[in-house]
User: Fold this.
Amino acid sequence: MKVAIIGGSGYTGGELLRILAGYPGVDIEAVTSRQYAGKKVSAAHPNLEGILDIRFEEPELSGIAERADFVFTATPHGFAMEAAGTFLDAGLKMVDLSGDFRFDDPATYERYYGIPHTAPELNEKAVFGLPELYRDTIRKADLVANIGCYPTTAILGLVPALKAGIIEPGHIVVDSKSGISGAGARPTPMVHFCMADESALPYKITSHRHMPEIEQELKKVNPRARISFVPHIVPVIRGMTTTIHTFLREDVTGEDVRAIYQDFYRGEPFVRIWDAGEVPRMSASRGSNYIDIGGFGVDSERERLVMVVCQDNLVKGASGQAVQNMNIMCGFEESAGLKTIGVHP
Ligand SMILES: NC(=O)c1ccc[n+]([C@@H]2O[C@H](COP(=O)([O-])OP(=O)(O)OC[C@H]3O[C@@H](n4cnc5c(N)ncnc54)[C@H](OP(=O)(O)O)[C@@H]3O)[C@@H](O)[C@H]2O)c1
Assistant:
């Protein structure tokens, strides 16, 4: 299969290249970057020197659509909704890593992303790209909206408890810490070493774009679901830890909760459920497509349940999940190309 990556010089584009470089049967037909056009991919991704002998090209969409069978858009929001028609009309399947097609209602996108949605008819066809919840619809989709990094942790961390009815749906706090690569490769003051190192930076503490994405999915389980979502940047390059604070409606133990999660995710290739009381750590999934869910701390006196979810923001939170979606869309083995174990420490 011939694959194109639009936005291949960025961090998620680099991860797509790293994963697909060792994927038998997949050829990288085109990889774009305006800044690096004409240069070897190793100019942006030195880990690929001697591994992938291809060069970046300009994002000339119709020419690329003629040459490829499958496309990833690893571009900032606003790009994919303009480009998707060209690719889908030419018969390609597409996974977009941005927020352009994640919302059921384009008005929510417009409110949180601050620009008009220019492809509402394609938005209707797009499928929410979270395999653990939507595998059957992803299988039939031509356009998949790979979901956000923070939402992957929050949604997978909350849906089993919400479905089981053991937590108060309206009183949920999602407190997330992300590595700096979550902000992309473009340098900004926020990710300057002196600003980010030796610090923790809470940002958009009541208005982050991922909050409505998380609530959209939780409300499908319980319409009363509401969250307070606070993201932080912490001084690590990659990785994400989300601590989820909830109030219990039922008298359960940590073991009971763990059993609910184990049942829910039985057979899932990339969800690891930790023992009750054992807290997963960010670094254990680094470089891999695993998501670790654990903690399951019950404080009966205060009727609280606290869970901890960790992943690599660039893999299960982005490009690994994108390849998982590709595998499902194309009828390949779901974990093909994704069997790497994380590096720790
Ligand atoms: N970083 C994460 O952890 C993460 C996780 C989940 C989802 N995402 C989402 O994935 C997308 C990519 O994120 P990233 O972190 O990889 O960003 P990034 O490092 O800033 O890379 C963006 C890429 O898009 C290209 N690009 C930018 N504007 C373009 C345009 N108008 N037309 C064509 N190409 C353009 C850039 O190359 P040129 O400018 O050289 O063309 C670059 O290759 C974003 O929508 C982001 O929200 C990121």
In short: The longest helix spans residues 149-164. The CA atoms of residues 122 and 301 lie 49 Å apart. Residues 150-313 form a domain with the Dihydrodipicolinate Reductase; domain 2 fold (CATH 3.30.360.10). The mean pLDDT is 97.
